[in-house]
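Follow-up to my post from last week.
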Amino acid sequence: MKARSAASSWIVGLALPFASLFFMVPNFASAQACCVGGGGHLGVVGRERRAALTAQLLYQRATGSYGDDGRYHPLRRVSIDDVVLELGGGVRVFDHRLELSGSVPTRLQHRAFPGNEASTRVGLGDASVGLGVMVVRGSVEGMRRTEPSSYRPFLDLDLGVVLPTGRAPENASDQNGADVMGTGHFTLQGGFRSSQFLTLQHIVTLRVLYEQGLARDVPGPFGITRSYRPGRAVSVRASWLHVRDMRWSAGVFTNARFAASARQDGVRVPASASRRFSLGALLSWVFLLPNWEATLSLTLDTFFDGPDRNLPQVGPSLSVMVKRSF
Amino acid sequence: MTPRNTPPTHSSLLAVSLAMLASACSGDTAPPMPISLTLTDGTQGVFAPSDVLGVGANIVDVTLTHADGSAMPDMTLVVDAFMPAHGHGLRQPPEVHDMGGGHYMIHIDFHMTGHWDMSVGLGDGDGDGAPAFSVPLEVQ
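User reply:
Got it. Predicted complex:
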């Protein structure tokens, strides 16, 4: 038992900060400025840390789209490339149970469409702020039959707001839309995160996030103003993480996002409900013990007919994140 | 909105037949991608495109005729487009070129794939235009 405790001390010490990584992998909002939500920066600080600063560099290339019938259409003779540098951070207060966080993305977007000159634009994306509350402090020593308390998972409740700090579609002028940096509306978020230490080195997590974009007036054809409200959305992320040793960990995750129909002037917009499924993997390295870590993450869409629907741009994304914990 | 020749009331407007030829203009020698729009509902102005447009620059060829097939010249054609699912329109307004004899060439840029509603308005020669009917388009 003593041997187990000795081994667990450093593994747990490392697993705790790693457990926060799953909430930091690239999300849909980072991948696309306009029209697809899912953003936020919730859960950035490791379980037993006071604060964290992060810098994430993400690259995504759109390779296709999904229609209302769920068919995948490859984008041909088109270049849609996004690079997003997202700076964020968070701090825990009140006995580590309350976490305040925020992030600000800067976007570089390249668009090349048939018949038009290619364009590249840089601008501020949609910033976000979040509040997390640890409701249940779970066990970190792995599940053991002899200790019922070891089955208790961590549970955090999250609230967040995505702010329309990026240039809205109606304020953009580039003919390719390269200068559309944000959604143009506030998005309210609420949800929970739960993580369970199956063993000292294996952690599973589940995150559910509900989002509601607020209605706003948008200019329609011939200058007629319309009220537009994006559809409510629920995102679910399940993940598994293996902590190999003090420096290395790796994991896989899957995302699903379901968005209801948008509304225009109070009327449901046909063919506007969407869903998106993606898979990913990450590799994390603590390059300077114990506070500096880097995470490489790859996210892929399904790329076949059926599961996804009404997505104008999908494609793989690759990100590198550096995090300094305190 | 008063036409110079035949008043384009909604009833006469609905009798208009539109023949469109769209080109996913590649900026080089790529052949135009034809798109046929057929009037399917004489009272609502609903059109059913037989093909899709492409993201990027497109050229849409529009011919306006009366119900009897005679040309409807000297009109002003006004075009705009909106993506209702995402709540935004085009980044730049389409350019409409009057080729004469009721024939118009529209340069329109779509920056996103998906469903668009192209609003077509008819006005008199002074340039006044108003939404007259909407043409659903799929952009890929």
